């Protein structure tokens, strides 16, 4: 990351997982060392319990969470998670003059907590720059072959901002024939192909699954590479904004 910390390539997302401990324990057994949670997910404690039960040293695991509250509540919101984290994201940060609330997070950052953003578009990032605030270290946005968000990715690369990909597995919809074709060619699952696409395109994917077996399978992505031809096929699936499968706030004022 721009601040000098290392962050693992692959992370387990635990969004909408009310019983995430089994998935987290499976992930740590499978070699994941990055878990992505949030205050709004209401499962930070489960992540912590799973980490403790795993026997993996806490210092070997990278944990991300996200601030649920903005404005005057930001400081208390961050401090409630601070002792547990390696990375703190601002969840759906407001734009316009309200972007100044980021100062509150910056003012209480520790060496293990980095001022970052989740889901801002180029205009939101420009508002931060124009306000004279620190450049975010990480931007976590929806990214997969159907929604490649090229303007945001290009801006982040130009300004040294690390890009994380949520919804990298398209919420399990692998019906597209191109994805199926590449999976057959590589003898890998569609999920493995999609995570590999993210990594080879320079993103850090956060695949989500509550099934321990799938958690293990999704981590098996380091013994192959997608060919240039396969990457080109997947790149051609981009639909711009229409390819988004989640609420995408990049154009919100």
Question: How would you summarize what this structure contains?
Answer:
The chain is built from 10 helices and 8 strands. The chain is α/β, with parallel strands linked by helices.
Provide the β-strand percentage band: 5-15%
Structural classification: alpha/beta
Main sheet attributes: strand count, strand direction, barrel closure: 8 strands, parallel
Mean pLDDT score, rounded? Answer: 82
In one word, what is the shape? Answer: globular
Distance between the termini: 28 Å
Low-confidence stretches: 95-119
Main sheet strand line-up: 1-2-3-4-5-6-7-8
The arrangement of helices and strands along the chain is EHEHEHEHEHEHEHHEHH
Helicity, in percent?
25-40%
Number of helices: 10
The total of beta strands comes to: 8
Gyration radius from CA atoms, angstroms = 18 Å
Give an overview in words.
35% of the residues lie in helices and 12% in strands. It is an alpha/beta fold and 253 residues long. It has an 8-stranded parallel β-sheet with strand order 1-2-3-4-5-6-7-8. α1 (21-30) crosses α2, α1 runs parallel beside α9 and α7 (177-186) crosses α8 (190-200). The longest helix has 11 residues, at 44-54. Residues 95-119 have low confidence and may be disordered.
Topology:
Layout: E1 12-13, H1 21-30, E2 34-36, H2 44-54, E3 62-67, H3 74-81, E4 87-90, H4 102-107, E5 115-118, H5 122-130, E6 138-142, H6 150-158, E7 162-166, H7 177-186, H8 190-200, E8 204-205, H9 212-218, H10 228-235
Parallel strand pairs: 1-2, 2-3, 3-4, 4-5, 5-6, 6-7, 7-8
Helix pairs in contact: 1-2, 1-9, 7-8
């Amino acid at each position: 990351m721009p601040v000098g910390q290392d962050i693992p390539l692959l992370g387990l997302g635990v969004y909408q997982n009310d019983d995430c401990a089994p998935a987290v324990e499976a992930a740590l057994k499978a070699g994941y060392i990055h878990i992505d949670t949030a205050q709004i997910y209401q499962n930070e404690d489960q992540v912590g319990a799973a980490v403790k039960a795993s026997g993996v040293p806490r210092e070997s695991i990278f944990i991300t969470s996200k601030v649920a509250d903005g404005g005057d509540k930001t400081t208390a919101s961050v401090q409630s998670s601070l002792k547990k984290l390696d990375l703190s994201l601002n969840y759906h940060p407001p734009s316009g003059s309200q972007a100044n609330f980021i100062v509150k997070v910056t003012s209480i950052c520790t060496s293990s907590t980095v001022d970052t953003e989740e889901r801002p578009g180029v205009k939101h990032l420009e508002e931060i720059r124009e306000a004279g605030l620190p450049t975010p270290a990480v931007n976590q946005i929806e990214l997969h072959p159907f929604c490649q968000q090229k303007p945001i990715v290009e801006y982040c690369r130009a300004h040294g901002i690390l890009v994380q990909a949520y919804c990298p597995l398209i919420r399990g919809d692998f019906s597209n024939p191109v994805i199926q074709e590449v999976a057959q060619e590589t003898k890998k699952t569609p999920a493995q192909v999609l995570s590999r696409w993210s990594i080879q395109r320079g993103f850090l994917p956060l695949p989500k699954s509550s099934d321990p077996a799938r958690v293990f399978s999704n981590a098996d992505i380091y013994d192959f590479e997608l060919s240039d031809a396969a990457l080109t096929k997947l790149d051609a699936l981009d639909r711009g904004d229409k390819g988004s499968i989640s609420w995408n706030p990049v154009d919100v004022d």
